[in-house]
Amino acid sequence: MKDIARQRMSIKVSTMDLLNDQIKMESHASASYLAMASWCEQNAFVQSAEFFYHQATEEREHMMKIFKFIADCGGNSLSPTVDNINHDFSNLEEVFETALDQEIEVTKSIYKILSVAKKEQDYLTENFLQWFIKEQLEEEKTFRDILDLFELMGRDGIALKFIDERIKTA
Amino acid sequence: MTKVYASKFYTLYQSDQDRRYYIDFGQKMVKFSFCQLLALRQKIYAVSIEDHFDSDLNKHGFEILILCNKEHLFLLNTFEVLDLMEMVKYSFSLLGISSEIPLTSS
Is residue A13 less than 8 Å (CB to CB) from chain B? Predict the structure, then answer.
């Protein structure tokens, strides 16, 4: 019997399922960053809003990278639905803390896929995920550095204005 | 055609000649490309089987499956859904692209 399944698809279905879940997660992250950008706009944190617009675009690019990878491997990429986006935040620090938590969840999810890929001897997916691991390290560091600014500069009105101005270069 | 796996209601075959899969649904034999077989897997796995046991969520315990670019429509009851899920799960393992069912025994 010919190995038609292998001829048609280069990755395992279990990793394909997890990658499709990851597409959903990246899409959710992108939409969450848009909600954060909206909150920042409404509260006059102009640089932070720009930062989150940029983050939203980046997350969408991550999503597309995975989407295309599944398709290139002969799998079925699933277009995600996004719901439960939080638009309510108490202050700017909470926005960045939520963003960091979100990035940590994304990192955990990438590690989970990597672990399954290793177990399944799916070397193609394992290799593909290396870029994401490096990217997640940078993403987490960016948010940690921003949160450090609140420790250093304080949380009152003028400090928040200075922090917002520094976000541009974050 | 080579038989890949037979469950209670369904049998999956592979044809090396046209590089297609065939599922015998009892009433008819349906031809699948590999991508269509993947789509069947995703559709059957997306079924919320718990809803079949809650009359508010799935009153009649039926599921409608539209397959192969809308070429075929199937109406399955709870037993048939569960059986198709099992058939898909075992078949993908036997095809060597899933380890959901460890195939270590002879």
Answer: yes
Give residue-wise pLDDT tens across range A26-68.
999 999 999 999 999 999 999 999 999 999 999 999 999 999 9
User: How many contacts, defined by CB atoms under 8 Å, are there between A and B?
Assistant: 49
Q: What single-letter amino acid sits at B31?
A: K
How close, in Å, is residue B34 to chain A by CA atoms?
7
Task: State both tokens at B86.
Answer: 């099992």
* Nearest chain B residue to A74, by CA: B35
User: ipTM for the complex?
Assistant: 0.82
Contact B38 A78 (CB under 8 A): no
Phi, psi of B29 (to 5 degrees): -100, 130
Query: Structural domain tally of chain A?
Result: 1
Best residue in A76, A79, A124 for a mutation probing chain B (most B CBs within 10 Å): A76
Report pTM. Answer: 0.90
pLDDT tens by residue, A121-169: 999 999 999 999 999 999 999 999 999 999 999 998 899 999 999 986 5
Decide if A12 and B42 are in contact by the 8 Å CB cutoff: no
**CB contact A80 to B (< 8 Å):** no
Percentages (nearest 5) of helix, strand, coil residues in chain A: 80, 0, 20
Q: Which residues span the domain enclosing A56?
A: 4-79+87-167
For residue A56, the domain's CATH number is 1.20.1260.10
Residue type, A81: T
A5–chain B Cβ distance below 8 A for any pair: yes
Please give the full DSSP string across B2-67, using - where no structure is assigned: EEEEE-SS-EEEEETTTTEEEEE-SS-EEEE-HHHHHHHHHHHHTS-GGGGG-TTTSSS-EEEEEE
